[in-house]
Design brief:
single chain, alpha/beta, 25 helices, Helix Hairpins
């Protein structure tokens, strides 16, 4: 059993690690009719919508080209520059075309608020809409005036809703690698679509002109104000120049340069006078210090004095003439020295006066030049802005938009939507996808077993038989059906089960066979009865024991069963021969269950029961024990200790994996091994519906012609 569970778990892990494409395709193929049904329904809805329900929509397109190069008329520069042709500029213009402001202008121009296609308030309300409106009126009647919306707010809300609807029905696109824009409008009217597209283009171009006119007006207003201010500033500056000139001596750069030359000459004369003064002072000092005749001659440097000295100084007359001449020279030198001192002083005073004049006139000249420059700068600004004002005023009549309409919208002849063929094709694809999703979801969520392969791969235990649903209304008719139709699919399925059970152990054929299931209603009793019937058909002696003594199901199949049964036999209240019963038309001895105060588990756990089974082995070729469900009571596991084979019935498309896991876990805990599974109560029609028609046993589609219906 541990090996079985490990095999099951290993198989699940392998399935989780990989995707079996073949199994996926097979699953989808099994659900082909469901996929086809969903696809047909989806396509039908699409056809109804596209051809009968959908409102035809007409699309019209106006083409606008962006002109980045602006011509300057009469050489006048533009106030607002042209648009750039780069990607940023193009994307900006696309957003401008999609803007709410532009859409609102179109709404106002075309009065779309009065159009029911755009204004939902004008449409006839639906039943749901009328109900909501009535509820609002009932509950809104008690609202205060402050909470109620004003008429202006209501109008704004309607205008905003109409604008939003218009933007949803407008599309703007730029043709790649160009400056051309397509403005498309899609409405229920072809004429309206063309009109809206053209109006959008015209409003866009008009908006560009309005922007330029606004910019020009603002520039003109500002320039006019600025020119007036500069005119006043110029007048003030010129008045300052005139006033300063009147208050000061007339000065100029040339006059200042003449004064500077005079100062230079004066400084040269002062330098020469200083040299002459020094020479005179030196000579006077030498004359005053001379004592001898030679020193006096050297100091005086006078020709007359030298001649007197050459004539001789022996006489007093000569001496007096020499001294008189020397004194004259000395007095003259003194006079010259005093005059030189006075001249030098006068020159220095003149230099100071000239310097003062130069400094004063230089400062005045600087102030005058500054005032003059300010006046000239103000004049230049005034003239420049005056020129720009005249140019701007001249441009008001020659403004040109940055775009123009390349082609007007054409009234479409055929609707652009709905695209019926495309809708139907997409619906078909969607239907296939939805159908496939439903099939895969159903397969993914399926926790039951529909084929023997599923059951074997999940448990790792062989499926010995696949028994179809026997078409009878009452349980007591089951055996009669098998007798009346010995070549039916159900009968052949039981024979296949019998054969598989006999071959399950070649060394020792099972003699005591237990039939059980997870829960009631899974067909284990039918399997027990049918197997017993077909084992007796081999000429073998068969004993059928009702191990489910709590429910006593065999009474529903054989109403004539005695009231005493296995409990009385084990208690030795009656003999086995008196308790056993062979129903009419059923060549099998039946030992029924009976009500008892002793717990059934205690009865089957007793040594008496084991001894009884050992005795029955000697009397019968096969002993089949129909036990209770394993998940309900422990009887099946107790009885299985005395059995050679355990047949476990799994109801087709009903028993869940969780129930089967718990059942196998209980057998595992008891160290018991299930011999094989029986996939019971298989619905042939549903089997084919699910796409498993080729995976049945004796009831598969290939069995036609071999079995009775």
């Amino acid at each position: 059993m541990n090996d079985t569970l490990q095999k099951k778990q290993g198989g699940l892990e392998a399935e989780d690690d990989t995707i079996d494409v073949g199994a996926l395709i097979t699953t989808l193929w099994r659900g082909k009719w469901l996929i086809a049904f969903v696809t047909i329904c989806t396509v039908g809805l699409a056809i109804y919508y596209a051809y009968f329900k959908a409102v035809p929509m007409y699309q019209s397109t106006a083409v606008v080209i962006l002109e980045t190069k602006q011509d300057n008329f009469a050489g006048l520069p533009s106030i607002s520059g042209g648009l750039s042709g780069d990607s940023t500029g193009v994307n900006t213009e696309v957003e401008v075309l999609k803007s709410r402001g532009l859409a609102q202008k179109v709404v106002e121009r075309l009065k779309l608020i009065q159009d029911p296609e755009f204004n939902s308030e004008l449409r006839e309300p639906s039943v749901v809409g009328r109900g909501i409106k009535a509820v609002k009126l009932v509950f809104g009647s008690g609202m205060s005036e402050e909470m109620a919306q004003s008429e202006a707010l209501q109008e704004n809300r309607i205008r905003d809703n109409v604008t939003e609807q218009l933007l949803r029905q407008i599309s703007v696109s730029n043709i790649r690698q160009s400056l051309v824009f397509n403005i498309s409008a899609e409405t229920q009217s072809p004429v309206k679509s063309a009109k809206i597209a053209d109006t959008f283009a015209e409003t866009y171009i008009r908006n560009q002109l309005e922007v330029k006119f606004t910019a020009t007006d603002q520039a003109t207003e500002w320039l006019s104000k600025r020119v007036s201010e500069l005119q006043i500033e110029l007048e003030i500056a010129e008045k300052k120049v005139k006033s300063f000139t009147a208050q000061t001596q007339l000065v100029s750069i040339e006059g200042l340069e003449a004064l500077e030359r005079q100062i230079k000459d004066m400084r040269d004369r002062i330098s020469n006078a200083e040299v002459s003064k020094i020479e005179l002072e030196t000579m006077l000092s030498a004359l005053n210090q001379a004592q001898t005749t030679e020193e006096k001659l050297a100091a005086a440097k006078d020709a007359t004095l030298a001649r007197i000295a050459r004539d001789g100084l022996a006489s007093e007359v000569s001496q007096n003439a020499f001294n008189s001449r020397y004194q004259t020279i000395l007095d003259r030198v003194r006079v010259d020295t005093a005059r030189a001192e006075q001249q030098l002083t006068t020159l220095r005073l003149s230099e100071v006066e000239l310097g003062r004049q130069v400094a004063s006139q230089g400062e005045d000249l600087i102030v005058l030049q500054q005032l003059t420059r300010e006046s000239e700068a103000t004049r230049l600004l005034y003239e420049y802005f005056l020129t720009r004002l005249k140019e701007t005023s001249a441009q008001e009549g020659i403004q040109k938009a940055d775009s123009r309409i390349l082609s007007h919208a054409v009234v479409p002849a055929m609707p652009s939507a709905p695209k019926k063929t495309q809708i139907v094709a997409l619906a078909m694809i969607l239907g296939v996808m939805i159908g496939a999703g439903i099939v895969l979801l159903r397969e993914f969520r399926m926790s039951t077993f529909r084929t023997a392969d599923d059951l074997e791969s999940y448990t790792g235990v062989n499926v010995l038989g696949q028994v179809p649903l026997i078409p009878t209304r009452a349980r007591q008719d089951t055996l009669q059906y098998l007798s009346d139709k010995p070549t039916s699919a159900a009968a052949e399925a039981i024979r296949n089960l019998r054969t598989s059970l006999m071959l399950s152990n070649m060394d020792k054929k099972p003699q005591v066979i237990v039939s059980t299931s997870s829960i009631p209603g899974e067909g284990k009793t039918t399997v027990s009865l049918s197997l017993a019937k077909f084992l007796s058909g081999l000429g073998k002696s068969v004993l059928l024991i009702e191990g489910d003594i709590r429910r006593r199901t065999l009474n529903e199949y054989f109403p004539t069963l005695p009231t005493t049964g296995i409990a009385s036999v084990l208690n030795q209240d009656v003999d086995f021969a008196d308790a056993v019963h062979r129903p009419k038309g059923f060549d099998v001895d039946v030992l029924a269950g009976e009500k008892t105060n002793v717990n059934a588990a205690d009865i089957f756990s007793s040594d008496t029961f084991k001894a009884f089974i050992a005795e029955m082995r000697k009397r019968y070729d096969f002993i089949i024990i129909d036990t209770p469900p394993i998940l309900v009571v422990p009887d099946a596991r107790i009885i299985s200790e005395s059995a050679d084979a355990i047949l476990f019935s799994v109801k087709w498309d009903s028993t869940s994996r969780a129930l089967l896991d718990e059942s196998m876990r209980m057998f595992q805990n008891s160290n018991q091994r299930i011999t094989g599974f029986v996939l019971s109560q298989i619905d042939e029609k549903r089997m084919r519906k699910y796409g498993y028609g080729d995976k049945g046993g004796a009831f598969s589609q290939y069995g036609k012609g071999y079995y009775d219906i």
